[in-house]
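Notes continue from the previous slide.

Worked example: a multi-chain complex. Inputs as given:
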Amino acid sequence: MDLEYSQEHESFRTSVRTFLKGWPLQGNEAQLPIEQQETLFRKRGIDAGFVYRKVPKKYGGSEQDDDAIKDQIIQEEFHAAQAPRDLSTQGAGMLVPTLLEFGTEAQKERYIPPALFGEENWCQGYSEPGSGSDLASLQCQARLEGDEWILNGQKIWTSSAQRAQMMFGLFRTEPDAKKHAGISYLLVPMDTPGLEVRPLREMGGGHEFNEVFFTDARIPAGNIVASRGQGWQVSRATLVHERNLIGNPNMMREAFGDLLNLARTRQIEGRPAIEDLGFRRRIAEIEGYVQTGELSGMRQFTAAHRGEMAKVMRPMMMNKVSSTDTMQMIMKCAYDLLGGDGVLAPTEEELDNWGRTTTSSGWVLQYIFSMGPAIAGGATNIQLNIIGERGYGLPRDLRKAN
Ligand SMILES: Cc1cc2nc3c(=O)[nH]c(=O)nc-3n(C[C@H](O)[C@H](O)[C@H](O)COP(=O)(O)OP(=O)(O)OC[C@H]3O[C@@H](n4cnc5c(N)ncnc54)[C@H](O)[C@@H]3O)c2cc1C
């Protein structure tokens, strides 16, 4: 493993830092709604070559040479500056790379630019009431009639569907095929007649989840990515991007920094909590996990840079499991530091930001929210099965027959 950055990469880091002095926006621009500020900043990031580096210019990206170390530097610096990044939405982070791999030219031209700039929001319609971990058992049906798909059934846990203009979803189109081979990946406008979004309240009090119902909802036949029955392969590509988003080690470092600040400011018996032996021990242990995650990330970047990705597939698969575990440890430790303030209810603003503040009630919400990522994009138990079976070649777990 190579832990030193080259001179070229250190000067690249300086240019990223200089660019980031433009965030947060200042003056009149700071008065714009936050979504518009983020779009403006991302567009500047494209011009500077720091954002959407893998997306071709003709679809709105900055089309840079493949350089995993520069990608890592950008991630680190954008995280430290809390600047809007390129991969933080379901559209830009999950749909766009999937369309780049599987979409038609017309689909790329139509959907990628507005997804990048946040002008069209996407939600992910995979899970159903009886199909989460066993996603391939999904029952939501799409029947081709003339030049339209007719959709019937239900999705659940659809994050941010209430704000989305489009859904990428999995539907059973070949009812007679084996379960994995009977699924197609469809693009569904959320204003389609017969599509209804119903909110689900979370235990933290927020509303990010929804149920989505389809009753004879009709969409154009061309809104399919890849061919009929290939939806499972397409969805695997989206899931890899989702897990990489969730497993980003920079999030741990940022949250750990906030935890340290909290431990310095909270008092235990008149002394800063960071001087309490019990909390010192816990925080030191957590830092070990944070550093391990970072080193594992660097190992992957080094291998990617040398074209040796096959060597690091196992640690890559472990990223999501280890980083979601560590985030839970960080949030639990913060929650314990709050003492009696741990009963404070989050504000509306904190609910909107998923607790991304460091007030006591913001920490409470982050603690509650930290349980979600270990389930989203595939629950930890399932990830461990995949790592064991595909990563280490262990015998397959018992499965129901198809
Ligand atoms: C924060 C968050 C955001 C989400 N956003 C979306 C979204 O936008 N779109 C979407 O479609 N879905 C979304 N989901 C749903 C998510 O994909 C599912 O919750 C997840 O796949 C698990 O499915 P399930 O909830 O049905 O649990 P189940 O599959 O019922 O699992 C319940 C428990 O049983 C365990 N289990 C199940 N099968 C096995 C097995 N074979 N071996 C060992 N253990 C097993 C699981 O690990 C889990 O602990 C989101 C979930 C969360 C928490």
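Summary box: The two ends are 43 Å apart (CA to CA). The chain is about 45% helix and 15% strand.
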